[in-house]
Amino acid sequence: MNGTSFRSDIRYWLRQGNTINHLLFWNIVVFLLLGVVHVVGWISPAAGFIPTFLYEQLSLHSALPAFIIKPWGLFTYMFTHVAIFHIFFNMLNLYWFGNLFRSFLGNHRVLPLYLLGGITGGLVFLLVYNLIYPGLDGTLIGASASVICLLVACATKIPNYEIGLLFLGSIRLKWLALAIVVLDAIAIPDGNTGGIAAHLGGALMGFVYVKLLDNGTDICQPLIWLFNRRVRVEATTRRKRMFKPKKSPLKVVKNGPEENRQLRLDQLLDKINDKGFESLSPEEKAWLKRMSQE
């Protein structure tokens, strides 16, 4: 596969309108960048300070003086990984549970909740670390808090949804989320206290978010509004691609039943992609069910 084909595949992958793809892409890009810089620093002692410098800039610092100097760490840490297994399992879970969340609650909520879960996890990390290790400067990296936030949000919204796990078979999502949270909680005395605190903070945000959403309050709405400019640009581009010149008034062509059904199916699938399955009306859900049975 040549370089042009590879770039084309990446562009196609990112243009699918799936925010999970973009999150995976940027997490992997940052990981690869840090990996390349680490190799360069290992080869050239003169550049050995660069990997440490970048890590210090991208991670979240627990010491308040360091955090005040580098507040952007509250955002950049959730896109930063340095260990291969760390990013592998985080991205695998992001792909699984992020797409599940997207299917039920909509693509437009993915990035806002990813950020809110990461921010909540980071703030809990700051609080816990300063209470237990006052004066020490610990660092936090990784998307775990954001990923667990999406997982718990899914488990709260669709608790009885079953997924298949290797060696365990089918398990309901609520039990998987509960097991992860409990295992994290009982592992606090064994080390990585700050990281586990961040996980629990992300889990709490996922649970609270869905409960508030079910009561009519979407705390992601300010971020959704903030990102609307990008969404509007994508929608405008999509409309341009779908534009067809008007037919001559001298020749009227009516769509048949099959064309009308396909058009409605495409519209409903676009609605699910943008806003999630729950955004469909009971009549639309019933129509889709009938279509799937034909």
TrEMBL record:
Record protein name field: Rhomboid family intramembrane serine protease
GO biological process: proteolysis
Keywords from the named record: Hydrolase, Membrane, Protease, Transmembrane, Transmembrane helix
GO molecular function: serine-type endopeptidase activity
Subcellular location, record wording: Membrane
Predominant place of localization: membrane
Peptidase S54 rhomboid domain residues: 71-212
Domain of life: Bacteria
Membrane topology: Multi-pass membrane protein
Record's GO cellular component terms: membrane
InterPro entries linked: DUF6576, Peptidase_S54_rhomboid_dom, Rhomboid-like_sf
Positions of the DUF6576 domain: 259-293
Spans traversing the lipid bilayer: 24-54, 74-98, 110-132, 163-188
